[in-house]
Amino acid sequence: MKLLSIIVPNEQSNMSTIACIVGTLQLFNEANNLRVKQHKQALFKVILVGADLNNAVHSDMLFVKPSHAISSISKTDLIVIPATNIKSYETATKGNKLLIQWIAQQYNLGAEVASMCIGSFMLASTGLLNGKTCSTHWALTEQFKLLHPEVNLKPDKLITDEHGIYTNGGAYSFLNLLLYLIEKFYDRATAVHCAKYFQIDIDRNRQSEFSIFNGHKQHQDDDILKAQIHIELNYQDKISMEALSQQLNIGRRNFDRRFIKATGLSPLEYLQRVRIEAAKRMFETSRKTVSEVMFDTGYSDNKAFRELFGRFTGLSPLEYKTKYNRERAMML
Asked: What residue ranges define each of the domains in the chain, with the CATH number in brackets?
């Protein structure tokens, strides 16, 4: 029987940590139960692992303690790192530093490792993600990039899988990671059974439709910040980046270079993201047609608008409006 070790972090935790721990226990227990009903042996023994037995995750109402200390586990097959909080693991607690070392050691011994939501911060602190792809909660991409520039962050991806290391996007999308792991270690039928039993939408592969673009403003370039604000206030107009750079007394090539360095996006890409975010809000809150929203966000080419919207959300404009507009949803 394989061993699944769910990490119980030391202090740097929150309610999402508990949700991830409980969700992992429930889904893997159900996968095991199905195998037993089929007269097969349970595939995983599931345990909660902490730096020591006094390690605990707690909120005002809930309390989770590990069943095993890492000192008692010489080898495990799969490690799950639940969501934690956004404190830097460069200044991790003593207990979490021990857990980080243990995770790296176990991976080098052959264990596979999965992180949920911003558990990716703890995983990245092991060094195991260096040069590899990774996902995390879309709202924390800037913080992650600042702390771990050596990791190839893919915030639009719901799940990444590389060399026995798995990550997923934000919040309760950890359930999709669990189904992915169950399919990989058990089989497709078991994953489908768990999806139906817990009523989880299986085979989601993007978190882009859930992301909210707030701009990348955690930088020190005041001129580029002014440019960002100008774009966000005037996105519906025909914005000339040449004129904007001249207005800021910056040469065009230097303007593009500084904009990319500060935000990670070119000026045109930034404008596109702002416009599509505005279009999403219009679809969610108004009765405007796709064409009306297209014109109101500065586009005149129907095909280009649909392609950009699909690239950033994974849905067509009509699909997005049907899914997220309250009045339209109530009519269906």
From this structure: 2-210 (3.40.50.880), 222-331 (1.10.10.60)
